Amino acid sequence: MHFRDMFVQNDRTFSFEFFPPRSPALADELMAMMPDFAALRPTFVSVTYGAGGSTRERTHDMVIRLGQVEDVNPVPHLTCVCHDEPEIEAILSRYAAAGLSNIMALRGDMPTSSEPVRTAFRNATELVHAIQRFNQRGEHPHRQGFGIAVAGYPEGHPETANRLLEMDFLKAKVDAGADAIITQLFFDNHDFYDFRERCRLAGIRVPIIAGIMPITSIRGIRRIAELAAGSRYPAPLLRAIGRTDASEEAVRRVGSHWATEQCRDLLDHEVDGIHFYTLNRSTATRDIYLTLGVRDSRALSASGGR
Ligand SMILES: Cc1cc2nc3c(=O)[nH]c(=O)nc-3n(C[C@H](O)[C@H](O)[C@H](O)COP(=O)(O)OP(=O)(O)OC[C@H]3O[C@@H](n4cnc5c(N)ncnc54)[C@H](O)[C@@H]3O)c2cc1C
Hints:
Layout (H helix, E strand, L loop, with lengths): L2 H7 L3 E6 L5 H16 L4 E4 L8 H12 L6 E6 L5 H13 L4 E5 L17 H13 L10 E6 L10 H13 L4 E6 L3 H13 L6 E5 L5 H10 L7 H9 L4 H21 L4 E5 L5 H9 L5 H6 L4
Parallel strand pairs: 1-2, 1-8, 2-3, 3-4, 4-5, 5-6, 6-7, 7-8
Helix pairs in contact: 5-6, 10-11
Bound molecules: flavin-adenine dinucleotide.
The site of flavin-adenine dinucleotide (FAD) has 22 residues, from strand 3, helix 5, helix 6 and strand 6.
């Protein structure tokens, strides 16, 4: 289902993000967990893509496998850094032929080597334009072509000089044809509300989906710092973690409680959607639904008070 139709049919969306497992055995393990995720009735699920195409086949294969699970609506991420336009077109053609309805369009992180980066695309706006050119050619089986989501950064992207430029660039991505924004994870909802307000003031009208990642371990905190460079940990969250005995179970409980409170508050503040960074584990997301007292996303959507 195209992103635009999802927002017509649902008051708000609930989605889960996976990364492509490194081996066939791990892929089977993730697929074995899929009934747990599917039982929560996500609006869509997404699969990340290694910048430069490093996970091209694994992302593709996982998305195709997920397409066989009823009602999970898989959305591949696609980063454009280090790709040329014919490569991007070939990837889009494959996804269109497989009947996928949406793409999460990203630039990706620049490679860290000192070699100059050769890339046809300098930013995600240029990728959104390329997807729209593809859509206009009518190769996609659906008349509307691919729906497109792009990334937003409530705390700012580490490479962007200031928040004014940030909004200009985000507006350019949306004006190029994005249907929705999915945000980087954040731990303080005020950052999200402030970002949402600034988007509205800048004339950005598409739905803004909040990215939530429950902390599950001390190792997880380090991983988050690597994945989402610049994410701030609010002092009360750090104090709560500091009070634990640092055991996995204690940290997991604190992380789950914090993320659940974030979700409850977002629902009370008319969020357009919540995107859970699952790290390929179902427990944390399931715990949040359980603690919110709902069986699945439909119940969660109905509980939002819109
Ligand atoms: C929800 C989400 C999912 C993600 N999934 C993945 C994934 O699957 N794989 C992966 O490798 N990474 C992923 N990332 C990380 C992302 O690729 C990095 O943060 C990357 O550095 C920026 O990508 P972007 O699409 O936001 O880039 P852009 O929006 O292109 O921004 C990148 C930089 O370019 C600047 N810029 C943007 N537009 C312009 C312009 N018109 N002119 C000049 N400068 C401009 C911006 O200010 C920013 O500093 C994800 C991030 C999020 C929030």
